[in-house]
Design brief:
- Helix 1 runs parallel beside helix 4 (72-83) and helix 3 (52-66) packs antiparallel against helix 4 (72-83).
- Strands 1-9-8-5-4-3-12-11-10 form a nine-stranded mixed β-barrel. It has a six-stranded mixed beta sheet with strand order 13-14-15-19-20-23, with helices on both faces.
- Mean pLDDT is 87; it is low at 10-18.
- The two termini are 42 Å apart.
- It is globular, with a radius of gyration of 25 Å.
- The longest helix has 15 residues, at 24-38.
- It has helices at 24-38, 40-48, 52-66, 72-83, 108-118, 258-270, 299-302, 321-329, 339-353, 392-400, 468-476, and strands spanning 3-10, 92-95, 134-138, 144-149, 157-161, 165-167, 170-173, 178-184, 190-195, 201-208, 212-215, 218-221, 240-245, 248-252, 279-283, 307-309, 312-317, 368-370, 380-385, 406-410, 419-426, 432-443, 458-459.
- The protein is an alpha+beta fold and 479 residues long.
- The protein has two domains: 3-221, no CATH class; 240-318 and 359-417 and 453-476, 2-enoyl-CoA Hydratase, Chain A, domain 1 (Alpha-Beta Complex).
Length: 479
């Protein structure tokens, strides 16, 4: 039997000296006020979808937990828990650089002092391996945790380290350090805050069965694991084109950032003569998006008809007073090259001003778009995707999947497409900032992909990701 728990992953950089105490209730009040006044996802999910009652219960639950959070580190966990109510992968809390009292984790003395003063340490109990409780071995074999009960109503379980952790001559934790705080939410379901090694909070789901505990892409097992660490597969962070065989080309695109557009266009144009091969693999694993303009040159070779449906037909700004002010201040920042452009920008802002306090109305817009031409070759396009694919990359996949030439392989994408236009707000007297989304995307078929992602046509096993290109060749391509 499998269970699923929403996981809040708080990476290691949030540790703070105990002297950095804070008024967490005050911080929760400030952050929730900013969200309620300005967040597009809040106004879409809570106000438009009439979930105010659930949100109030969640907020009350968070405020109760905040009463027992006295340090910056503890409060950061509570804040991330607060944000978990909204399904918005672009929105959240981000730590600043004010945490570490050292410059390197190799400074063992300072690191140990830092951890000791800030991380809760609990004695291990003599637990049986039953249900969620007991010993779990990390997939690398480097460390284990024990999940055990507490005597606290709001936090019924914790996961603690079973031994000190040292990795690559760096000290990262003491035996008994709490790595997972498991809370019971306002609905009675369990939610967990997982403290891992890194810099920023990320929300994951946790699932477990009798023999496996899954935390995002990290796995724990009941049975011991060899300490021979398997190096995680990682693709090069660059864009390149190569011929795999006489029938198949491979195009790796690591980013659709606008700064990479010229590179994508150049590489594709230089290799245009080779596109007479019947098969093209486009590998966008790890591509977190960028600009839709960056993949426009590819579409004539991918699409099988000139006219197709736009996945996103419009974007609607939530026009709070602060959001309007932000857009107003930036009105000349993009695409303004002449006095006429400036006047048009002013005119647009004045048109938006009358909608302050609501979403910008969506005008009648065409659901169709047209590519100037289409090509017979390649005859088959195979897109390889994984869960790091986000934002504009997901837009690229949604466009491409409308072509009968296209087949997708891999994992569900991240699901970071519904909200955008991120605005940063520094939290007063706290070493973190929040990023709030100001726009909601309108989909042609009203789909909801946020935190779900785009499912590929063929699911592949992430444990052998280094073999995915070969698997695509074997499964779908006649060499």
């Amino acid at each position: 039997m499998k269970y699923k728990i929403s996981l809040l992953l708080i990476l290691f950089s949030v540790f703070v000296y105990s002297k950095n105490v804070c008024d967490c209730k005050k911080i929760i009040h400030f952050v929730s006020k900013q969200v309620e006044e300005n967040s597009a996802s809040y106004h879409h999910q809570v106000i438009s979808q009439k979930k105010k009652s659930d949100y109030r219960k969640h907020k009350k639950h968070i405020e109760n937990i905040a009463k027992t959070a006295f340090t910056n580190r503890q409060c950061l966990g509570v804040l991330q828990y607060y944000f978990s109510f909204l399904k918005d992968n672009h929105q959240g809390i981000f730590v600043t650089n004010d945490y570490y009292p050292f410059t390197t984790f190799s400074d063992t003395v300072s690191v140990k002092k830092f951890i000791k003063e800030n991380v809760e340490n609990i004695s291990l109990k003599n637990n049986e391996n039953k249900g969620m409780e007991g010993i779990w071995h990390h997939e690398s074999g480097i460390f284990n945790i024990q999940i055990q009960k507490t005597n606290q109503k709001e936090r019924p379980f914790v996961g603690v380290l079973t031994q000190d952790i040292r990795i690559n001559n760096q000290f990262l934790g003491f035996k008994g350090d709490v790595k997972i705080d498991i809370y019971r939410n306002y609905k009675g379901n369990l939610q967990a805050i997982f403290w891992d090694f890194g810099q920023k909070p990320i929300t994951y789901e946790l699932a477990f069965s009798d023999q496996k505990l899954k935390i995002g892409n990290v796995t724990f097992y009941r049975n011991s694991v060899s300490k021979e660490k398997k190096k995680k597969f990682q693709l090069p962070s660059k864009t390149y084109f190569k011929e795999l065989n006489k029938n198949t080309n491979y195009f790796r695109i690591h980013s659709f950032d606008y700064a990479n557009k010229k590179n994508i266009d150049s590489i594709f144009s230089v290799n245009k003569e080779k596109l007479t091969k019947p098969n093209l693999i486009i590998d966008v694993r790890g591509n977190e998006g960028g600009s839709d303009w960056s993949y426009q040159l590819l579409l004539p070779y991918i699409m099988d008809k000139k006219e197709y449906e736009k996945p996103i037909i419009a974007a609607s700004i939530f026009l709070s007073k602060d959001n309007f002010k932000s857009f107003y201040n930036d009105r000349y920042k993009y695409g303004v090259d002449s006095r006429k452009d400036s006047l048009n920008a002013d005119k647009k802002m004045e048109a938006l001003r009358k909608y302050i306090g609501s979403f910008e109305p969506v005008k009648n817009t065409s659901k169709k778009t047209i590519v100037s031409s289409i090509y017979d070759f390649p005859q088959n396009v195979y897109i390889i995707q994984n869960k790091q694919c986000a934002s504009s990359t997901e837009g690229f996949i949604l466009n491409a999947k409308q072509s009968k030439k296209v087949k997708t392989f891999g994992q569900n994408t991240m699901g970071a497409l519904t909200y955008g236009d991120w605005r940063e707000i520094q939290i007063i007297d706290f070493p973190a900032r929040i990023g709030l989304t100001q726009k909601r995307m309108i989909f042609s078929n009203d789909i909801n992909l946020e935190m779900i992602g785009i499912t590929p046509d063929v699911l592949l096993n992430p444990e052998n990701e280094e073999q995915w290109v070969d698997i695509v060749l074997q499964k779908s391509i006649s060499q």
